[in-house]
Specification:
Order of helices and strands: EEEHEEHEHHHHEHEHEEHHH
Protein name: ABC transporter ATP-binding protein
Keywords: Amino-acid transport, ATP-binding, Nucleotide-binding, Transport
Number of domains: 1
Distance between the termini: 33 Å
Number of helices: 11
Strand content: 25-35%
GO molecular function: ATP binding; ATP hydrolysis activity; branched-chain amino acid transmembrane transporter activity
CATH topology: Rossmann fold
Family: Belongs to the ABC transporter superfamily.
Function: Involved in beta-(1-->2)glucan export. Transmembrane domains (TMD) form a pore in the inner membrane and the ATP-binding domain (NBD) is responsible for energy generation.
Helix content: 25-40%
Bound molecules: adenosine-5'-triphosphate
Number of strands: 10
Strand order of the largest sheet: 6-7-8-3-9-10
Length: 248
Amino acid sequence: MSDLLDINDLRAGYGEAVVIPKMTLQLGESQVLALLGRNGTGKTTLINSIVGVTRRFSGTLKLGGKDITSLRPDQRARAGIGWVPQERNIFRSLTVEENMTAVAQPGPWDVKKIYEMFPRLEERKNNFGNQLSGGEQQMLAIGRALTLNPQVLLLDEPTEGLAPIIVDELLAALGKITRAGGICSIIVEQNAQKILGLADRVVILERGTIVHDATSAALKSDPAVLEHFLGVAGAAGSKNKHAAGTPG
Ligand SMILES: Nc1ncnc2c1ncn2[C@@H]1O[C@H](COP(=O)(O)OP(=O)(O)OP(=O)(O)O)[C@@H](O)[C@H]1O
């Protein structure tokens, strides 16, 4: 399997602070990677570094064999980096449909296909971004990233703060999206057990460094690893996050 995303010796952070000292990570087509780790271990920083909104000290990034290291975030988006940030960042004063058509690029994912995936979005297509529930906003953020027809889809805690029934709906949709092929995904998720059912590979970070890289199947049969690296088997410290008020 050829690598769709190829991160090589990436050193990145903010200002003078190095959060990711030296990251090398490759992702093949259709691979779904769950990125886990305790709070503040650099998961969001890694996602943001692929998007291009952190400071890069050194290292390279390639997408589909093309060097994207020197591209700006908007150029990386057009090159095929789809991003669903933790804050969702939907356009609040545009309608659901306008949010998607504003950034659309040609490819298999068009608005019609996204409505098939998320019928709620079609029901709400003339509503403004600021009139949506949290779950609907997240569906829209995913739909908007897909209309770019990305090669890589980056999702930063897509289920955070959503009701369990919406979480299940979203994860089922993400399963369909990733099985449809053509893209690889990185999903940052606090709920390890839920994401193990969707991801085929799991990478655990500590201090911006990969400390464990395994298949989901291997992790499922060895829960002690999750316990060791995340503290709570299956729930990746989600309680600590809010107690500590950690930025993310
Ligand atoms: N904009 C920023 N400027 C400076 N430092 C930052 C910034 N954002 C994050 N950091 C620091 O970078 C480190 C990694 O944070 P990051 O948000 O990447 O971790 P995370 O694993 O995603 O954590 P969480 O689970 O809380 O989202 C932390 O020490 C954090 O304080």
